[in-house]
Design goal:
The complex is a heterotrimer. By secondary structure, chain A is an alpha+beta fold. Chain A has 9 helices and 6 strands, in the order αβααββαββαβαααα. Chain C has 2 domains: about 80 residues, Four Helix Bundle (Hemerythrin (Met), subunit A); about 35 residues. Classes of the chains: A alpha+beta, B mainly alpha, C mainly alpha.
């Protein structure tokens, strides 16, 4: 008979209709601003800058190498490199971005800046409620708005941040070991020299810190810019 | 007391007319009759949009709009403000005048139809002698405006949508008219007021609605299916098939003109529903004789809302039909069935009252319905169509 | 000769005149339907509700739509480049004059040449129906037969010739 399926379908929608009033489990929608779904760890939208420690001013990992600025496909990153060096979170003197702006309205969330950064200084954020009434100023984020702590990074992407932290710690330890070895060698050389000269000068503390420089890339990059 | 409440609008009108000088009375009387209708039905449209969106949401296990006002009842206001403030874009290649006239003609035609709808006892704008004919005549003007809209936009999509809409409307107008012929036969009049008055009696507590006869229920079902197709609603919303021609004939309209099309579509749906109520469900008559103390207009709008809810329910359930299925259904099932229904009504008319005529007419209609539906099945009109591609 | 009659007559004449003179075919159809609506309104003004509404239903709802449909199906995107009317001007004028002469002769020599001021009969729909079913039942049936034949013919024309492949 014609219309059997229609009746079945009508019964099904009626069940849905009344069921959704009785059984809250049926409703799959989440009332957004009040209720939120748990964040998925792989979520990412726009880049932010990671800083170590508590204060973003010295703690930024970024050394203004400008690789991300060059690689950014839509050219939404603008960096002004500092003229002087300041000690970073680990106490080493580094260049720092005097200005670091990302235009979120231009950014296409491609994550290339994150992939090219040799210092793990730029990462992807999960913040998405960024609407602004100011179309140009409100979406142009400066260094202070971009800077977020490593703890925050650990909170939003725990697995990834843990791996980054471990790698950084290992690198730093290696660098430290190398530096110590170098210092020891220097000290030995110095001692030998001192023994030879019988008037040894005391070993300086600064070479040890300088030797902590993890990669030679920075040296060449800074050399080029100078 | 009940009489006063029932006739309250009529009494108010007469009271207001008493203050008008005699010469202006016909004009003022017409205005006083028309204005409430012109206000009431757009309001009903607003209510229906909320009902529809919330109802459909619930059928799909969603909440539906629930932010504006209490439980989202101010949503139509927000929609109205939105469509009023939107930019009105007219395509450069469009036929400017026809493009402008199409929504106007459509809304005018949609409102004109209400002239013959009896909203309550003694509540009808014009008791025309040929009221039913007026309804169908004005309804056919909607097709012209659809054509105007589709053609003047100068877009392939809107032209395709208009062609689909017109083909569908013409095809379904046939069963729509033929389904109402049985009522005209039974009532012996083309006047909507007479048709309702014929149904307003009671046997015991049961009403004399035409839907409680075998030809009446068949006619009602055919009428409702055809009305769904006439008002371009799901599952007959091929003309605005979003997946292939985006919005059909009003794709090139924006802002308030788009809202006018939307309004006209819903007004058309209300009008055909109101006619279905008038023809088959006793108009403003109460369903039981002991409920006649409830005012007639309450019954009318209650029935209208029920039918609207049924429309929403069907929309939430059925998928869209294909064009060939649509046409086959109209010409090979609905049309023969409505013709047989007319024969059934004739037999009913000439047989003595009793169970025999019930049996005979029901058997006739049921048998033909079964045979027709089997014919549809056997010829695989409703089966999956296989496509042959050029290799 | 009331104001409403003059108004409706003006609408009818303007509509039909525009239907003949406009360049764009679709505009012609729309103007023609305006003229037909005007004519229907004239019928209504005379109290012939049935005829008036049937006029709208058949001519505006069906004939105009059919014409529009034909234009939509057959015409290319630009229906303005049509100047076929110019070549038939003389013969058209001749036909128009002949038709007018015949109609005028029929009107003048007909029985209702003298104005009859009787009130419009009440329940005219019923009377029309009774007349169709009693006095004019044979013409009605003949017309019905003709239309049925036309319908079947149209169906056969539109029928799928390769029924086997379906």
């Amino acid at each position: 008979m014609l219309g059997e399926g229609i009746v079945k379908g009508l019964a099904e929608t009626a069940r849905n209709f009344f069921g959704s009033y009785v059984n809250k489990e049926r409703l799959t929608t989440v009332q957004f601003p009040e209720e939120r779904l748990p964040q998925i760890e792989a979520t990412r939208d726009f880049p932010f800058l990671v800083y170590d420690g508590t204060d973003p001013e010295p703690g930024l990992r970024c050394v203004a190498c400008q690789i991300c600025e060059k690689e950014c496909p839509p050219k939404c990153i603008y960096i002004v490199k500092s003229a002087d060096k300041k000690p970073d979170a680990t106490g080493k003197a580094q260049f720092y971005p005097a200005q670091f702006d990302i235009d979120i309205s231009v950014c296409m969330s491609c994550q290339i800046c994150v992939e090219v950064c040799p210092f793990d200084a730029i990462k992807m954020d999960v913040e998405f409620e960024m609407s602004s009434e100011d179309r140009f100023g409100g979406l142009l984020l400066d260094k202070y708005k971009l800077a977020k702590s490593n703890e925050y990074y650990n909170k939003i992407h725990p697995t990834e941040a843990g791996a980054v932290d471990a790698a950084l710690a290992e690198e730093r330890a290696k660098a430290k070991l190398a530096a110590e070895a170098k210092a020891k060698k220097d000290a030995e050389v110095a001692a030998a020299k001192a023994a030879a000269a019988a008037a040894p000068p005391p070993p300086d503390a600064t070479p040890a810190l300088a030797a902590e420089t993890p990669a030679p890339a920075v040296a060449t990059a800074s050399g080029e810019t100078k | 007391m009940f009489e006063t409440i029932d006739q309250i609008f009529v009494l108010i009108k007469h009271w207001l007319l008493g203050y008008v000088p005699g010469m202006a009375q016909p004009l003022i009387s017409a205005i006083l009759s028309v204005v409430p209708v012109v206000i009431a039905f757009p309001l009903l449209f607003a209510i229906t949009t909320v009902l529809e969106r919330k109802g459909l949401g619930r059928m799909q296990n969603r909440y539906g709009p629930n932010r504006t006002g209490w439980f989202g009842i101010l949503q139509p206001m927000a929609d109205g403000i939105k469509s009023l403030t939107k930019e009105d874009i007219v395509p450069r290649t469009a036929d400017q005048l026809v493009h402008f006239l199409a929504p106007v003609v459509m809304v005018i035609a949609s409102f004109l139809v209400y002239a013959v709808v009896p909203l309550g006892r003694n509540m009808v704008i014009a008791d025309l002698n040929a009221g039913v004919l007026f309804f169908f005549a004005i309804g056919s003007m909607v097709e012209l405006s659809v054509f105007m809209a589709g053609w003047s936009s100068h877009s392939k999509y809107s032209l395709l949508g208009a062609m689909r809409a017109i083909a569908q409307m013409i095809s379904y107008e046939m069963p729509l008219v033929l389904a109402s012929v049985v009522v005209i036969m039974a009532a012996g009049s083309l006047s909507t007021v007479t048709i309702v008055n014929m149904q307003a009696g009671y046997t015991g507590i049961w009403p004399h609605w035409y839907v409680f006869t075998p030809w009446g229920i068949t006619g009602f079902i055919i009428f409702m299916i055809a009305a769904t197709a006439e008002s371009n609603r799901c599952p007959f919303d091929m003309p605005e098939g979003e997946s292939e021609i985006i919005a059909g004939y009003f794709i090139e309209y924006s802002g308030f003109k788009f809202a006018l099309f939307f309004l006209a579509e819903y007004l058309g749906m209300f009008a055909t529903s109101a006619m279905a109520i008038t023809f088959f469900l006793g108009g403003w008559a109460a369903p039981f004789s002991f409920l006649t103390w409830i005012p007639s207009y309450v019954w009318f709008f209650g029935k209208l809302l029920t039918i609207i809810c049924a429309f929403i329910w069907v929309r939430g359930t059925l998928p869209r039909l294909r064009m060939d299925q649509l046409m086959n259904f109209a010409w090979k099932f609905m049309l023969p069935l409505s013709l047989i229904n007319i024969v059934g009504a004739g037999i009913w008319h000439f047989m003595p009252a009793g169970f025999t005529r019930w049996g005979v007419v029901s058997l006739l209609i049921l048998l033909s319905c079964v045979l027709l539906s089997r014919g549809l099945r056997r010829n695989k009109w409703f089966h999956v169509r296989t496509y042959r591609f050029a290799s | 000769m009331t104001i409403s009659f003059l108004l409706l007559a003006a609408i009818t004449i303007i509509g039909t005149a525009a239907a003949m003179t406009l360049k764009n075919l679709v505009h012609c159809v729309l103007a023609l339907s305006l003229g037909l609506v005007g004519l229907a309104a004239l019928y209504l003004q005379l109290g012939a509700q049935f005829v008036g509404f049937t006029q709208i239903l058949v001519y505006v709802g069906a004939v105009a739509i059919l014409a529009a449909f034909a234009i939509m199906m057959t015409r290319s995107a630009d229906p303005t480049a049509s100047n076929a009317a110019a070549s038939f001007r003389a013969s058209g004028a001749l036909i128009a004059v002949l038709v007018f002469a015949v109609l005028a002769w029929a009107t003048i020599s007909g029985t209702s040449a003298q104005p009859i001021f009787t009130a419009a009969p009440e329940g005219s729909v019923g009377q029309v129906g009774a007349a169709l079913m009693h006095r004019f039942v044979l013409p009605l049936e003949v017309i019905g037969l003709l239309l049925t034949a036309a319908l079947i013919g149209a169906g056969i024309l539109a029928m799928d010739e390769h029924r086997g492949t379906r």
